[in-house]
């Protein structure tokens, strides 16, 4: 009894599995520590088998040395694609850091080993809310769809042009800062006006010690405006998910 095995399909499935698994260990929301490494590996194998038919249609089997080299290239490709998506969603963490800095919460900064976020209260809160919204709004499916599309955009085992990912990362970094300022900008502007008003009040009545009153005032303003910002967070997360999927398909 012989079991026929398509060598091209088997090699393509293994190469795709390496790319998918490397991506899941870097890209949000799958990089969260709440997902065990075993689950990420199983999901990577499942995604690799799911795209193996599409990937094997254009894959030509090679010798052992080239196949091992292809595995290493796929590992690097998966890490690079995952880092692109990480840069897109880092805008939310950066916006939370800006809110903590201007609102006075940065003094309570700490490191959360679960979500791997180094920031204060708003940074962690926005990060957790974005993670929940990604799963509740099926935004993670857009990321997986973009990752599956890279099998066609970037051939398996052949590597890719380094200029395209570097260009995409440069654009993602600049877009991250712009998005962070857009998210936290209104709150930063109001807190800046509050500081300016307290400064003028101190000049008029120096004995009032207005800056001591400023700490509870800035906390009150931050909590009030943060509620308004959270109303816009679903639309922001949806836009970032679309941007992440578009970046994955644009590096091929």
Helix-strand string: HHHHEEHHHH
What proportion of the residues form beta strands (DSSP E)? under 5%
Beta strand count: 2
Structural class: mainly alpha
Instruction: Report strand order across the widest sheet.
Output: 1-2
The percent of residues in helical segments reads: over 70%
Biggest beta sheet summary: 2 strands, antiparallel
- Shape estimate: elongated
Residue-averaged pLDDT: 77
Number of helical stretches of at least 4 residues:
8
Distance between the termini: 42 Å
| Unreliable spans | none
Radius of gyration: 23 Å
Number of domains: 1
Structure, described:
By secondary structure, the chain is an all-alpha fold. The chain has one domain (7-107, 114-250). 76% of the residues lie in helices and 2% in strands. The protein contains eight helices and two strands. Strands 1-2 form a two-stranded antiparallel sheet. Strand 1 (110-112) and strand 2 form a beta hairpin. The longest helix has 42 residues, at 163-204. The chain is elongated, with a radius of gyration of 23 Å. 38% of the residues are buried.
């Amino acid at each position: 009894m012989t079991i026929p095995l398509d060598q091209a399909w088997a090699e393509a499935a293994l190469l795709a599995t390496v790319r998918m698994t490397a991506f899941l260990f870097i890209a949000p929301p799958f990089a969260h520590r709440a997902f065990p490494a075993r689950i990420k590996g199983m999901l990577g194998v499942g995604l690799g088998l799911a795209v193996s038919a599409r990937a094997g249609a254009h894959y030509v089997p090679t010798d052992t040395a080239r196949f091992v080299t292809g595995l290493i290239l796929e590992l690097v490709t998966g890490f690079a694609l995952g880092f692109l998506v990480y840069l897109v969603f880092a805008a939310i963490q950066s916006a939370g850091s800006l809110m903590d800095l201007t609102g006075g919460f940065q003094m309570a900064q700490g490191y959360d080993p679960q979500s791997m976020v180094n920031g204060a209260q708003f940074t962690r809160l926005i990060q957790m809310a974005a993670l929940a919204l990604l799963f509740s709004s099926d935004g993670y499916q857009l990321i997986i769809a973009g990752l599956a599309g890279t099998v066609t955009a970037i051939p398996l085992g052949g590597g890719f042009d380094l200029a395209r990912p570097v260009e995409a990362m440069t654009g993602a970094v600049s877009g991250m800062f712009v998005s962070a300022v857009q998210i936290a900008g209104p709150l930063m502007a109001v807190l800046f006006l509050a500081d300016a008003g307290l400064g003028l009040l101190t000049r008029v009545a120096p004995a009032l010690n207005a800056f001591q009153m400023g700490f509870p005032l800035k906390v009150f303003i931050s909590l009030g405006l943060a509620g308004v910002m959270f109303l816009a967070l679903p639309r922001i997360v949806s836009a970032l998910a679309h941007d992440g999927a578009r970046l994955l398909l644009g590096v091929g």
